[in-house]
Amino acid sequence: MIIKNISLVQKFTGEERSKKIIEIVPYYINMQMLFEFYCRALVRERPENIDGTWNLVDYVGYKKIKSNLKDNPEYKVLDNDNNEDIPISPFLIPDIWIKINKGNIIIDAKYRTQGSLEKYQREITHQLLAYGYLFNANGLGLIKPWEEEKKESDTLMSNEEVVKNMLSWLIKGSTTEDKKNMPKTGCIVNRPHSFALGELDLTGDKTK
C-alpha cells in the first residue's frame, strides 16, 4: 500500500548516474510523514472526556498552499505578496491545528530521537513559537517517540491516553489531575501559551 506523500523515492548523485549498474534500495518510507499521519489520527478520535467544542483542522499540503496562498490567508506570514527576496518562509503549515472555543492549539510532531531534538532545540523552539504567534495559539504541543528505558514494573499509558491527556492539558488548562497525567508540561514565559510534550510508544509493547 502506498500512502499519498509517503512515496517510493530514490535520488542519485552524478557519479552514481554515470555507472551502468546502480544499486537501488527496495523501498523508501518517509517515517516523519507517516508519524505525522499517525499523530493526526490519534487526535482525530476526539476523546469524549475533553470538555468544550473543538475541531481538528484538515491538513493542507505544502504544494497546495504554495500554489494558492491567496485562498489560504490563515497560513500567510507576510501581508506583502512580493516577498521573493525576503529570506523567511511566506507561509507556515502546522502538523496539527485544533480550533477551540476561544483560540487555537498547535502541535508539532517530530519523528526524532531525544539526542536529535536536543541538537536542534533552538530551531524547534523557534518553530513552535512562530506557530504560536502566527496562529494566536492558546497552547503548544510537541509529540515525539518514547525512548526512556522501561523497568519490569513500568506500565505505560496507551498512545491514545497520552494524546488524550495532552489535549486535556492544552484545551482545558492546567489542574492538579492534568499535571499528574501529563508531567512534561509548562507555560511559555510572557505568553498565554500552555505547553505539553507527548511521547508515544511505537514498540507496540506497553510493558517490559
Report on the architecture of this protein:
The protein is of the alpha/beta class and 208 residues long. It has a six-stranded mixed β-sheet, sandwiched between helices. The chain has helices at 14-18, 31-44, 62-67, 114-119, 121-134, 159-172, 176-181, and strands spanning 54-56, 96-100, 103-109, 137-145, 185-187, 194-200. It has a domain at 31-59 and 95-200. The protein is globular, with a radius of gyration of 20 Å. The protein is 31% helix and 16% strand.
Strand and helix map with partners:
Elements: H1 14-18, H2 31-44, E1 54-56, H3 62-67, E2 96-100, E3 103-109, H4 114-119, H5 121-134, E4 137-145, H6 159-172, H7 176-181, E5 185-187, E6 194-200
Parallel strand pairs: 3-4, 4-6
Antiparallel strand pairs: 1-2, 2-3, 5-6
